[in-house]
Amino acid sequence: MLRLLVVDDHPIFADAFALMAAKARPDCIVNCVTSITEAEPLIGSGRHYDLVFLDLSMPGADGFSVLIRLKKARPNLRVVIVSAREDSHTVSMAHAFGASGYLGKSLPFEDMQQQLRRVLEGESVFPPTTQPITDTEAAMRHRIEGLSAAQFRVLCALCKGEPNKHIAESLDLSEATVKSHLAAIYRGLGVVNRAQAILAAQPLLRQEGREPGKTADPSE
Question: If you average pLDDT over every residue of the chain, what do you get?
Answer without folding.
Answer: 83
